[in-house]
Amino acid sequence: MVIIVSKEGQLANRILHASSFIVNAQEHRYRVLHLFFDDYYSFFSESLSGNKSPIRFLGKKSSWLVSSFQKLVTLGVKIFLKLGITKLPFFEIVRYEGYEQGLKPFDLNDEKFIKKARSKLVLVYGWLFGDHVNQKKQRQILLDTWLPNKIYHDKVEEYVTRYKKDHDLLIGIHIRGGDFKRFEGGKWFYTPEQYYEK
Asked: What are the residue boundaries of the structural domains of the chain, listed by start?
């Protein structure tokens, strides 16, 4: 079993991060537990509670118990890493950090990783884990997993339908206007005017 033990970004980044583990686990038949999706669970609760995805989430909403467990696990992992301990008989920590452009992702299809994921607890810590091989093959499990609750889905459908009526092409842009002002010194932050210009 793989346990995601680091909080990687906000909603879009956490979906992207978890999705690599979902397709890999579906392909290679192991389970995944995500410790840090409780902030957003309520947006997808209808699909997440009934789907056949190999991923499960710790807690459906923030609570004192969930928050304490998250802090305890994170602190424990950080202490083990600081002491240079990444392996014990019943678990292993796989750490892969870095945000540099062009950094090669940790390949979740690595045979050693898959063998560990099937036979022991693997605590994954860091951002750049990927499985580009199985993204297309396991596309449907991602669509089923990340289907927003009906109330949000219906609002989006209504919005898109209204604008498509008079236009042939709609372009959506995800503008990182909040956290990117501070992240990595703001080097990837662009104003709405800069997006419009491009």
From this structure: 2-149, 152-197
